[in-house]
Design goal:
alpha+beta; three-stranded antiparallel sheet
Amino acid sequence: MRNNGTRHHFIYKTTNLITSEYYYGIHSTYNLKDGYLGSGKKLKRAVKKHGKENFRIEILEFFKSREELFQREKEIVNEQLLLDPLCLNLALGGII
């Protein structure tokens, strides 16, 4: 997608198609097709091990501001989610 000057703020879920492990994150970009999968340490290790082609990213919600984005991440990436053995997130969401 071409840069039309609009910055997109969204929350996403990246899923390992081999192991079903997943990662929730937030991203702001001018290009929705920038190839971004996430920045988590466990996620990066999994991508290195299994290859980028074995991961799918889903945009879950768009937001008008980074502040709204952080608030929603805080709601999704909570203590209960971090207990799931398939979750690749290491920390609570919404931390600036």
